[in-house]
């Protein structure tokens, strides 16, 4: 039985490779962003065959009569990566997160939720984001289903690295739910009850083919949190399956606990103290800062119904974010770009997500450092740096082009993506 199955697999694999598109395409880049070296290089040509980059060389390496895509007037970059998304979740600015979650879990079918997610997913490609790390709030593995539908070509969208339901302590992040309705939480979170259950939860997730594990180190404003022992059990079991673990953390204490437990990354980390940042740098734990730009906050404030004078807190918020990001960089913490934008503020989800570039820029990061954190560094922390986030031999052909000057007009330029290729296929030309 097993032998026959193995033979069948070999047959299927050899079949599909013969159907793959194998045209040679040469992309001429006026400027090429080398994400590993974090520099812009003039006049390079990228040779793409099928879905793979064959080589990067000089213009004179193009053979005669070759198929050429001329991007000499553009800057060419690897497809961008958003390392913190919730493709299957959307709320209005006026809605309460918890009430909206319960509404969605009880009145939005999985089918409807997934179809809506599919539309959001596609919008990432339009803005040059060709990969996303999708971190829960996606029902029972609807993120995995969406990923598979994209990978098999049923729908168009970015590469999705899916976590499945978030592992969290009692109540998850859905606050205010009465005892008799706590079972609703199990439709959105995997509630952990002790060390053995923590191990079981990771196995369940592995069995559903997730790409990584997301935990809530704290559940603020729900006052429960995972213990260090539970988080350690999660990390050890996940690592035994080659899965990395990222931790949502608001309080400094929960981040400290998660880092002690051995997680690979901290998401948000709004209240990180210097001592925790130092520990993160030592243990090579990355940070995904998920704040928003001033522009975004102004739009959000209006939609949420705040009066102008009620928005003083935004200044404090911006200041806090800038200080934390600056301290993290000074301490040597690796920054990975992620948006966490799931509120409908007008425009598509992809457009909303690229606000992270503006936020980091306003907080003082240099354009090239921002791009590196959204390409090579992000890929490195997904263990995918040979495949995505880079333009080099044998990488997947995820390639975009922008018009303008990255170094002198960053925001305008990064918002003018005029060419998008994912997996060797041109989406926007
Ligand atoms: Zn999030």
Please give the order of strands in the largest beta sheet: 3-2-1-4-16-17-18
Q: Mind telling me the C-alpha Rg?
A: 22 Å
Helix and strand content put the structural class at: alpha/beta
The largest sheet, given as strand count, sense and whether it forms a barrel, is: 7 strands, mixed
What is the number of strand segments? 18
CATH architecture of the largest domain: Alpha-Beta Barrel
How many domains is the backbone divided into? 2
CATH class wording of the largest domain = Alpha Beta
- What is the assigned CATH homologous superfamily of the largest domain? Metal-dependent hydrolases
Bound molecule kinds, no repeats: zinc ion
* CATH fold title of the largest domain: TIM Barrel
Rounded mean pLDDT is 94
Q: Indicate the low-confidence ranges by residue numbers.
A: 10-20
- Number of contiguous helices: 15
Q: Which descriptor suits the 3D outline? A: globular
Question: In percent terms, what proportion of residues is strand?
Answer: 15-25%
> How far do the termini sit from each other?
48 Å
Work out the helicity level: 25-40%
